[in-house]
Specification:
globular; two-stranded antiparallel sheet; TIM Barrel; alpha/beta
């Protein structure tokens, strides 16, 4: 990650699985490890966008631990297919 940082404007962290034969790069519906994300934020010196199954129940703790520039929340803050108005405060 560090060798890429000088060549990008920002970084998106999502949950994947690099150990598989066919790599998963995101959109896996898996919650990522916030301790790894925090280390990335501390090292890259770029705005970091955090994604990866951030539900309304855990987004606050993820933001407090990782301290990203922004978070991406979508499918896990929907009720009956629509954005849940109670979760809008996290945008």
């Amino acid at each position: 990650m560090l060798w890429v940082a000088p060549h990008v404007d920002d970084v998106l962290i999502d949950s994947g699985n690099q150990r598989l034969t066919v790599k998963l790069l995101g959109g896996t519906w898996r919650t990522h490890d916030c301790t790894i994300s925090r280390r990335i934020v501390d090292q890259v010196n770029k705005p970091v966008f955090l994604a990866g199954k951030l539900t309304a129940e855990i987004v606050r703790s993820a933001v407090e631990e990782v301290r990203p520039f922004r978070v991406e929340i979508n499918s896990d803050v929907r009720t009956v297919g629509r954005l849940d108005q109670r979760s809008r405060r996290f945008y």
